[in-house]
C-alpha cells in the first residue's frame, strides 16, 4: 500500500481540501500504517509516530461510520446514515483531530490542527463534535496507559504519547526564572534562525523527493526496500560511530539529582536518570552523545528539557548536524514516518546549544536551559511545518505551562514569516510535488483583475434532458468528468423540429415548461385567486382576465424564447460533432437546466432506467434516493459494465435526478468571489451562466489552482 508511506498528513490535508486521493482512507492503508510505523520507530529510524497517528485516526473516522470496508466485503451492515461526501469529510476531520489529541495529549490543539491545517469546510456544529472526539481519544489513551504502566486503572496520569514533563526551577536556585522579558529578544532571534533552518530542511527534502520521483519510484518495488535498508544501515553506523568517537564522558553531577527531584510527575525523574547512557565511559560518568542517540526520541527530548547535567556545545552541535541531515534523508522513504518528534528533538538540541552558549560566554546565569530547549524545538518545528495557532496550543498542553504561551506564539510566528520568505511548509511542498490541485485559503489581490469568463472552460461536454443510451455511454467512456451540465439548444425554428422527432420534441417541451415567465407566473396566481371565497377578489381576478386578450400559449412562449441568433443546423442529440462545423455551430447557445453527476448516470444505466421512443417519458421507472446512493462510496466504473442488454436507441430522462439549482456565477464575477464561493461551499463544479440563462462555461478545482490563475493572469497582461 504505497500511500501508507510518509506521515500521511499531506494526503489527509488533500482529502479534507476536497481532493480524493486513491486509497488514502482504506482499511489496508491503516493496517500497513500501524504495522509499519511500529517497526520503523522501534528500528531506530529518525522518524516519529505522530504523523502516522493522525493519518490512522482519519482512516478510522472515514471507515467506522460507514460500517463497511472494501477489504472486508463480506461484512455488511444496513446502516443508511452518513452516506455522503460531506459527512465522511466531517468524520475524517474528527479522526485527524483525535490522532493529534492522542499523540500529544492535546485535545484543544487537535481541534485547532484540524481547523488550521486540514479542513477546508468548517461549520460551528462541527467544532464541538471534533472537540468531544479529541477529548474522548485523549482520555481513552490516558486510561489504558495509566493502567498498563502503573497498574492504577482510572488514575489518568499519562495524557499523551509525547509528554514534555513539568518545567520547574530548582528550589535551591533562587536566581532561576522560567523566562523573563529580556529572554524574548533571544526567542525572536531563535525564531529567525529556526525559520532559516526549517527553510533549508524543506529545500533539501524537496530536492531529495524530486530525485526519488525520477530515479527510485519508477523502478521495481525492491529498489524502495533497498533504499529504506540503506537509510537504516547508515543511521545505525552513524549513531554508533558518533557515540564512540565524538561523545564526551561527563561527570554525573549531584545537581542533576536535586534538579530532577523537583519534577512532580511520577516517574519523570526516574525516566531522566535511567536514560543516562555510560557507553564505554568509566563509572560515575556518562556519554553525552550516546545519551541523546541511544534513547527513544521522547526520552532524548526529556533529557534536553530537564537534565541539569550539561551537554557540551560541541556534542550538541554535532548531534544537531547529524540528526538534521539524517532526518531530512529519512523523511520521504517508503516507510510510515512522522516529522513532529524528529523536528522537536533537532530543535531542542539547537535551543539547548543556545542556552549553553549564553551561560558560558555571555554570563546569563538566570536563564533556564529547559525553556530555551523548548523554544528551540518550537522554532525549528515551526520553520519546517509553518503552523502557528494549533502548534502553540499543542506545545502549551504538552508542557502544562500556560506561561509559555506568549514566547511560543512569538517564536512560531517569526519562524513562519522567515521560512515563508524562502519556500512553503514541508506538507505543502509534498502536496505540490504530487500535483494535487490544493486550494489555498484565499487568492492574491491581483487576481481580481480576472473574471470568471477568463478562467472558465468554454468547451463543454453536456447531456440533454432526454438523451439516448448510446450517447450517454459514449460520453461516459470518452471523458473523465465527474458531472455534466443538462442543457437544451436555442433554435430559431423549434416548431419544425418538434414535428420531426420525438426525442427533440421532448427536450423542447421540457425547456418551455421549465422557463419561468412573468406572464405565466401571473396567470398561475390569477387561477389560484379564483378559488378564494372573497367575491371581491374573484371579481377583480375575472375583470383582469377579461380585459386581457388571451394569446396563444405557444406564440407567447415563442416570443419569450425568440433570440437574435441565426438558425442552427438540425443537430440531433445523439449525433457527434462534425469537423466541418463553424465556431458558431460548435459553440451554439445552450440553455442551462441543471447538473447531473457521473455516478447518477452510471446508476441509471445499471438499473435500466429508460423509455422507448414510442412511449411517454412518464413510463420511465423512478428510483428513490436510497436506490441511487446504494453503491456509495464506490460506484461502478462505466468501462466494467456489461450494457449489451440495453437497447442503445432507448431514451433516458435525467431531469428527475439532476440538481436543478446548483451554485452558478455570472461571467463578470471577480475571481476572488468565485474562489470564496467554491471553497466555502465545498463545490466541485461551478457553472458560468450569462444573463439570459445560457451556460457559457464551467469552473472546476483545476481552474482555481494558483498555477492556473498565474498563467491566466500573464495572458491577461499580454492581451492588455
UniProtKB/TrEMBL annotation:
One Pfam match: CBS
Domain annotation CBS: ranges: 658-719
PANTHER family to which the protein is assigned, alphabetical: CHLORIDE CHANNEL PROTEIN CLC FAMILY MEMBER, H(+)_CL(-) EXCHANGE TRANSPORTER 6
GO molecular function: antiporter activity; ATP binding; voltage-gated chloride channel activity
Transmembrane segments: 30-47, 91-114, 178-202, 222-246, 314-333, 370-396
InterPro entries in UniProt: CBS_dom, CBS_dom_sf, Cl-channel/antiporter, Cl-channel_core, Cl_channel-6, ClC
Compartment list: Endosome membrane; Late endosome membrane; Membrane
Catalysis: reaction(s): 2 chloride(in) + H(+)(out) = 2 chloride(out) + H(+)(in)
Topology of the protein relative to the lipid bilayer: Multi-pass membrane protein
Gene Ontology, cellular component aspect: late endosome membrane; lysosomal membrane
Domain of life assignment: Eukaryota
Lineage of the species this protein comes from: Eukaryota, Metazoa, Chordata, Craniata, Vertebrata
Biological role: Voltage-gated channel mediating the exchange of chloride ions against protons. Functions as antiporter and contributes to the acidification of the late endosome lumen. The CLC channel family contains both chloride channels and proton-coupled anion transporters that exchange chloride or another anion for protons. The presence of conserved gating glutamate residues is typical for family members that function as antiporters.
PROSITE patterns in the record: CBS
Matches recorded under SUPFAM superfamilies: CBS-domain pair, Clc chloride channel
Family that this chain belongs to: Belongs to the chloride channel (TC 2.A.49) family. ClC-6/CLCN6 subfamily.
Sorted UniProt keywords: Antiport, ATP-binding, CBS domain, Chloride, Endosome, Glycoprotein, Ion transport, Membrane, Nucleotide-binding, Phosphoprotein, Repeat, Transmembrane, Transmembrane helix, Transport
Name of the protein this chain belongs to: Chloride channel protein
Amino acid at each position: 500500500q504505497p500511500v501508507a508511506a510518509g506521515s500521511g498528513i499531506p494526503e489527509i490535508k488533500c482529502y479534507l481540501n476536497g481532493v480524493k486521493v486513491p486509497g488514502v482512507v482504506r482499511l489496508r492503508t491503516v493496517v500497513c500504517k500501524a504495522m509499519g510505523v511500529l517497526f520503523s520507530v522501534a528500528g531506530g529510524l529518525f522518524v516519529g509516530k505522530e504523523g502516522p497517528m493522525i493519518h490512522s485516526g482519519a482512516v478510522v473516522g472515514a471507515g467506522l461510520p460507514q460500517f463497511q470496508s472494501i477489504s472486508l466485503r463480506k461484512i455488511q451492515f444496513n446502516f443508511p446514515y452518513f452516506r455522503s461526501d460531506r459527512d465522511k469529510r466531517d468524520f475524517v476531520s474528527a479522526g485527524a483531530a483525535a490522532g493529534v489529541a492522542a499523540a500529544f495529549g492535546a485535545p484543544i490543539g487537535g481541534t485547532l490542527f484540524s481547523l488550521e491545517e486540514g479542513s477546508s469546510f468548517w461549520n460551528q456544529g462541527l467544532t464541538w463534535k471534533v472537540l468531544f472526539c479529541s477529548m474522548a481519544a485523549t482520555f481513552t489513551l490516558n486510561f489504558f496507559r495509566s493502567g498498563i504502566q502503573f497498574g492504577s486503572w482510572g488514575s489518568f496520569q499519562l495524557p499523551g504519547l509525547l509528554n514534555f514533563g513539568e518545567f520547574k526551577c530548582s528550589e535551591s536556585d533562587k536566581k532561576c526564572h522560567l523566562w523573563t522579558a529580556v529572554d524574548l529578544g533571544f526567542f525572536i532571534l531563535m525564531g529567525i534562525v529556526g525559520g532559516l533552518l526549517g527553510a533549508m530542511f524543506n529545500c533539501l527534502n524537496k530536492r531529495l523527493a524530486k530525485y526519488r520521483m525520477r530515479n527510485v519510484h519508477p523502478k521495481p518495488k525492491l529498489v524502495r526496500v533497498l533504499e529504506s535498508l540503506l537509510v537504516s544501515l547508515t543511521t545505525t553506523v552513524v549513531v554508533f560511530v558518533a557515540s564512540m568517537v565524538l561523545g564526551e564522558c561527563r561527570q554525573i553531577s549531584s545537581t542533576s539529582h536535586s534538579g530532577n527531584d523537583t519534577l512532580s510527575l511520577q516517574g519523570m525523574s526516574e525516566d531522566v536518570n535511567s536514560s543516562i547512557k555510560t557507553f564505554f565511559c568509566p563509572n560515575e560518568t556518562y556519554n553525552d552523545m550516546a545519551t541523546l542517540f541511544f534513547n527513544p526520541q521522547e526520552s532524548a527530548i526529556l533529557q534536553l528539557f530537564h537534565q541539569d547535567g550539561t551537554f557540551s556545545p560541541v556534542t550538541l552541535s554535532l548531534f544537531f548536524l547529524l540528526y538534521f541531515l539524517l532526518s531530512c534523508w529519512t523523511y520521504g522513504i517508503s516507510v510510515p514516518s512522522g516529522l513532529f518528534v524528529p523536528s522537536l528533538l533537532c530543535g531542542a538540541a539547537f535551543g539547548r546549544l543556545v542556552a549553553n552558549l549564553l551561560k558560558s560566554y555571555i554570563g546569563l546565569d538566570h536563564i533556564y536551559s529547559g525553556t530555551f530547549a523548548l523554544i528551540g524545538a518550537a522554532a525549528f518545528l515551526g520553520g519546517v511545518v509553518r503552523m502557528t495557532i494549533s502548534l502553540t496550543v499543542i506545545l502549551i498542553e504538552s508542557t502544562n505551562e500556560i506561561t509559555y504561551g506568549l514566547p511560543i506564539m512569538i517564536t512560531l510566528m517569526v519562524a513562519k514569516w522567515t521560512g515563508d520568505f524562502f519556500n512553503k511548509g514541508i506538507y505543502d511542498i509534498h502536496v505540490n510535488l504530487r500535483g494535487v490541485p490544493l486550494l489555498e485559503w484565499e487568492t492574491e489581490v491581483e487576481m481580481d483583475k480576472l473574471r470568471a469568463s477568463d478562467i472558465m472552460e468554454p468547451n463543454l461536454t453536456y447531456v440533454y434532458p432526454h438523451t439516448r443510451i448510446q450517447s450517454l455511454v459514449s460520453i461516459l467512456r470518452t471523458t473523465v468528468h465527474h458531472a455534466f451540465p443538462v442543457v437544451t439548444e436555442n433554435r430559431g425554428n423549434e416548431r419544425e423540429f418538434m414535428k420531426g422527432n420525438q426525442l427533440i420534441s421532448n427536450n423542447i417541451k421540457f425547456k418551455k415548461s421549465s422557463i419561468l415567465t412573468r406572464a405565466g407566473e401571473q396567470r398561475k396566481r390569477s387561477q389560484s385567486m379564483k378559488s378564494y371565497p372573497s367575491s371581491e377578489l374573484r371579481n377583480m381576478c375575472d375583470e383582469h382576465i377579461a380585459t386581457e386578450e388571451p394569446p396563444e400559449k405557444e406564440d407567447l412562449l415563442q416570443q419569450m424564447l425568440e433570440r437574435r441568433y441565426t438558425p442552427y443546423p438540425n443537430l440531433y442529440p445523439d449525433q457527434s460533432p462534425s469537423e466541418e462545423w463553424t465556431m458558431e455551430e460548435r459553440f451554439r447557445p445552450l440553455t442551462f437546466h441543471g447538473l447531473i453527476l457521473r455516478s447518477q448516470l452510471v446508476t441509471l444505466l445499471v438499473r435500466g432506467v429508460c423509455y422507448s421512443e414510442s412511449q411517454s417519458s412518464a413510463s420511465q421507472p423512478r428510483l428513490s434516493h436510497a436506490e441511487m446512493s446504494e453503491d456509495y462510496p464506490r460506484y461502478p466504473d462505466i468501462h466494467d459494465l456489461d450494457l449489451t442488454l440495453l437497447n442503445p436507441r432507448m431514451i433516458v430522462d435525467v431531469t428527475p435526478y439532476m440538481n436543478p439549482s446548483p451554485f452558478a456565477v455570472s461571467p463578470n464575477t471577480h475571481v476572488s468571489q468565485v474562489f470564496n464561493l467554491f471553497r466555502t461551499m465545498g463545490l466541485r463544479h461551478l457553472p458560468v451562466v450569462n444573463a439570459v440563462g445560457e451556460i457559457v462555461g464551467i469552473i472546476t478545482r483545476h481552474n482555481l489552482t494558483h498555477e492556473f490563475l498565474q498563467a491566466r493572469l500573464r495572458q491577461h497582461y499580454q492581451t492588455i
